[in-house]
Amino acid sequence: MSNQVGNSLYAIPADTPEKERLGKQYAYKRTLFGWNSPMPPSLDVSGLTDILDVGAGTCVWTFDFANMPQVKPRPALPEKTQPKETLLVRLYACDIDTVFFPDRALLDEFGVFQQDVTKPFAPELRWKFDLVHSFTPASSPSRLRTHPGMIYTPSSDLITLGRSLTYRLPHMLRAAWLKVKESRRIPCLIGKLAADRLELALFAEFSMENFVFVFRHLAKGLLAKGKLRMPDGIVVAAEEQAESMLKEVEEGARRNGVVMLGGVFVAVKEST
To answer: What Rg do the C-alpha atoms of the chain give, in angstroms?
Structure first.
């Protein structure tokens, strides 16, 4: 069962609504983490030169990083008045498909390329970057070895999953010769639970629709691979059975709200 559109490699339909969803999802998660910057407050970006955004999607994080005052001067500032601490960097972005990337004219200052993060990166990219941002962590530690100096990854998982990625990721990073410098877990409130929080109320409806949308598409993918299971471990083999399960999950989520476990991890290359 595939949700691909045309020749797109995305599992979710690659259309305008999906671009809008990705943008709102980024704004929602940044609000969850309580940041007014694309980077954790504890992370010093001075001295960084080559930055890579993995799974960049619409490149919203890449643009957000590029607009940080210490990275690039505000357009209104004449060049001669640029702050001395201004950091000029080389920004790169990649994804399994470039279908969501902005118009090429907007990417003149970026290096963009197509990359499936479950496959090895080109040899010339090995340890090239000072910072790698991965909104969706790579699925294999061996892939992380192609990333360099520092990796910053905000991630999230359903707390009901037995092997939550937010708990496995530190081990994956260490297996990739990276030292976890900072880790923080944050409850991600969705739907009804978000509505009760002043700072999240604006995202209450979106967070629920986003959860249902992603959950359904992931379930369809797992069903097609024969890996969709009920909470008791029984494999779901028929579409009718899957739809019944999804309907039950959706009704419960809308009625009670959902809590997911979010995590922020900063890892650096071990000294050699």
So the answer is: 20
Distance of CA 200 to the CA centre of its chain: 19
Question: Residue 220 — left, alpha, or beta (φ > 0 → left; ψ -120 to 50 → alpha)?
Answer: alpha
Rounded Cα distance, 115 and 57, in Å: 12
Residues with Cβ < 8 Å from 33, sequence gap 6 or more? 40, 154, 186, 262, 264
Task: Give the integer Cα–Cα distance in Å for 1 and 221.
Answer: 7
**pTM summary value:** 0.76
Distances (CA, A) of 263 to 33, 165, 170: 9, 9, 11
- Cβ contacts of residue 18 below 8 Å, gap of 6+? 10, 12, 100
Render pLDDT for 21-33 as a digit per residue (tens, 0 to 9).
989 999 998 898 8
3-state secondary structure at position 207: helix
Domains of the chain: 16-189+259-269 (3.40.50.150)
